[in-house]
Amino acid sequence: MTLSSIQARHYNTTEPIVVSFDDGVICDISPLESSSENLLVLAPGLVDLQVNGYGGQEFNDPELSTEKVLQICLAMDRDGVTEFCPTFTTQSFELLQHSMATVAQGIEEQADISDRCTVLHLEGPYISGEDGPRGAHPLEHVRPPCWDEYQKLQSAALGKIGILTLSPEFPDVGQFIQRVVDSGVVVSIGHTAASSDQIAAAIDAGATMSTHLGNGAHGTIRRHPNYIWDQIAADELTCSLIADGHHLPTSVIKSIIRAKSPERCVLVSDITGMGGMPPGKYTSTGIGDVEILEDGRLVVPGQSQLLAGAALPIGTGIVTLLETAGLDLATAIHMASSGPAKLIKHELAPLEVDAPVDLVFFQIRNGKFEVHTTVNRGRIVYQAS
Description:
With 385 residues, the chain is α/β, with parallel strands linked by helices. The protein has helices at residues 66-76, 93-109, 111-114, 147-156, 173-182, 196-205, 227-233, 250-260, 314-324, 329-334, 338-343; strands at residues 5-10, 16-22, 25-31, 41-44, 46-51, 53-54, 57-58, 81-89, 120-123, 161-166, 186-189, 209-210, 238-242, 265-268, 280-285, 288-292, 298-299, 307-309, 359-365, 368-376, 379-383. β11, α6 (196-205) and β12 form a beta-alpha-beta unit.
């Protein structure tokens, strides 16, 4: 289904407008003289750089098929996400090779996949082995950076790895980082116990991003210096944040954004395969036995504090920024759309005449980001009933 015209409020100005479309491209934007208070907000489609799975399916799956990849892609439409990075966390070489090759094959062969994802995110296996920084990544598969292995994984991915998250705490990692950056891939610091000197050396070698800053860290760290302060202070690093209301206290989110500025911060969901699933207990999932609580918190069963991952979409983070970080809607949307798109060298089309159409129509009601319609490449791919 394609769009012809729609009435909405512009996310940047909140002014009511009429937007007309022709063959998937905006052909006219006009003021709306009279409007209802209930008009939906129109914004660029959301871009999520860290998606581990969705709807009961993980990308790290020894039985992953292109059909399962398509299942995840289509399910993401309901959250207003028009582009995302399939993310592969620390595992054996064989599993990573299979999973990334399967997604890359799907991108090459199916437009419904390539319309939604073209860049892969490899999060590990070159991360800290320490408890805390390692997070939920399996210790038995954590290992130092290896250029030969990385090249084999990039080959399996058909050259589509665009983000590599690693820890710079290993010897001679600077040369590895520089080679990865020179190949056109974004190197992001994450799951790290690195020293200040190691963080600085990684930046000098070309690292430009921090993965879910404030998470994947020790429960207790030295007051200062430490690897969180070092990354906050580094203007060269753009940090991603999980602002789902569970992974970081709102005071931390607010402080990081104020220190780094919204231009150097982006939202990610870090959503697992349990995203989009209803509350309840689940056994034998791709991430083990888990429970989704009524508030969306994904936990180890039987308690409410120990997180087992993320299960809430990136739109939840937009609401968090509006309600607790003092940001306006335009800035919050930027941090979940054009900001992350820029990091993977994709320019998200602005809402203007002659621009191609990746859009989300939504409202924020009762503290929830409610998607009404998602438009991808000019096609309506999701519409709420």
